[in-house]
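Thread: quick sanity check before group meeting

JM: Hey all, I'm pulling together slides for Thursday and realized we never actually wrote out the predicted structure for the chain we discussed last week. Dropping the sequence here so it's in one place. If anyone has concerns about the input, flag it before I start.
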Amino acid sequence: MMSHDQKSKDSNFRILAECAILLIVGLAPILWFQAENLILTEDFHLPKTFEVLERYFYAWNDSINLGVAPFDFFQAILFFFFQSLISALDFSLQTTQKLLFIFWFTIPGLSFYYFLHAILPQHILRNGALAGSLFYMTTTALIPIWQGFNIANLTGYAFGPILLAIFFKMMDGKLSYPKGAAAFGVMSFIASSVGTNAPFLLVFSIPFILYSLFKIIIPLRDKEYKMVWTLLTKSLGFAFIFILVNTFWFIPLVNTVFTAGSESTSPFSLQTASNWLDGVSDRTSILNVIRQQGMWTWTQAHGSGSFIDLYDPYSVKFLENPFFIFFSFLIPVLAFMALFIRPRIDKAGFFSVLALVSIVGGAGAHLPTGPLYLLLTKTMPLLWMVRSPWYKFSFLTTLSFGVLLTITLGYIVSRFLNTATKSETPRLLIPNLQYVIAVLILIYAGPFLKGEIYPSKEGEIYPSKEVRKFLPYSHLKIPEYVWDATDFMGKEDAIGRVLSLPGFSHSRGNQWGYYGFEGILYQVSRVNTLMQKPPNPLKDELYMAFNQRRAEKFLNLATLLGIQNILYENDAINKIAPEITIDHTENRKFLKSIEGIEEVKKFGQWTLYKIQNAHESL
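JM (edit): ok, ran it. Output follows.
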């Protein structure tokens, strides 16, 4: 029989070894990059420098259009602060992006591993924690989050388990309230970027609320009202701590949600949410939700005729390969087996209920639970904000399944080790079941781990029929002339406000691969840039005057708006509608024909013009 010291040494060695495995898997983003290219995500942001980070400390940003009051700048400060630290090391942009990706890919696995050790017994952890953590950090639910590099979701996956661990230990009486409050306050600040997406923040709060109710039910039934009051004040105290340390962004967010909620154009509005809900619920059947395959893009293509691209060409493997189909069912089966374990493992009941909540929520408007969800959106405060239910609730599904999978594997193996058997197969398989499942998890996550989720233009990853033909592809190298133009404008004291032409809507990009919500000029410089999006009546008139070749109106509006320079991007193309061409030759002729506009300098495909006698500001 092993001594206590020997058991402790073995346990420490196991933990170190399993953490090392998680760290190695966390290096997977290295495989995602091609040559010297950057990865272009939907919410593309070049790694921030401390100079650029300064924008996020102000409630008014005058470097975008005519000035904006972003509702998510303050929440993103901590997220971009880490980027600034890495950027300060003066690595190449690609190396910086690799380091950032490795960080955000690894932390969820380590965070969840810590969470499991905080809430589950040792005999379960010993034989299930590694597989559960690998599932949590490589689940298919993370794929759209990584394709978009969504700040709130990545932050939630990374730090949510640590916050939950502190909260659970405090509510269970395993951590004193002062220590728990202090730790929760620090982690709440570190995880502040979870607030960049209000709907996700709402879903993120559910396990805290639900666990509080779980803890209160029994003493309430037994009429132990003093205990009920103690638990209630503790949980409300933690909620207050979270709000208090995040007041700098929480109050502006609340104001934005409640003032914009009734506006049809607002991303928080009830009308916008309702219009969006049906479309994104197309693939969120119960079967797809429990298999973490609710992405509507998996079976959809864009375009018509000869212009057709699959949104997610890698998805064919998950939908057609027999192993991938089988394994997609195996994980939820193993997870729900935790319900039948006797004696019941602590927390199995709670995470089973949380899983059920996440499945109903993630299915959104899809039958058979759709009517219930739609009813809840009308009766439950703020739930209508969750326009894309599966993309938000899948966080809870992943969290629940990770815990339940750990419980099932840990129980099966520990139960077997305590039961003698004469069969050789179980002797070899069962004790190593966790590692078998861990390997299968990594195989199943292969398209994710190898970077196939980022479509290629050249066909380095996919067969030629599956590469992107015209939809934005995910690997790009920013041309030197972009940096030359940025450097020139950055050194010119009187460069003033710059108008980006020929406009930049969501269907616009650049020949060398850029496509994003903001023009590339905003990404690479601090120049005050006027772009076509978001809409504004004066700006709309300006761009309309340009497109209609109305020189006098164009010049008058440009002067009125304080535009001092025009940057014409000759490499601009329509990324979503390639059949619509941009006549760059005629556009440049029009600019040259306007008296009062003169060419300053060419930078490869870009040309900088100056408006004479322009106002310095609006």
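AS: nice. Residues 258 and 516 are 28 Å apart (CA to CA). The longest helix spans residues 389-417.
JM: adding both to the slides.
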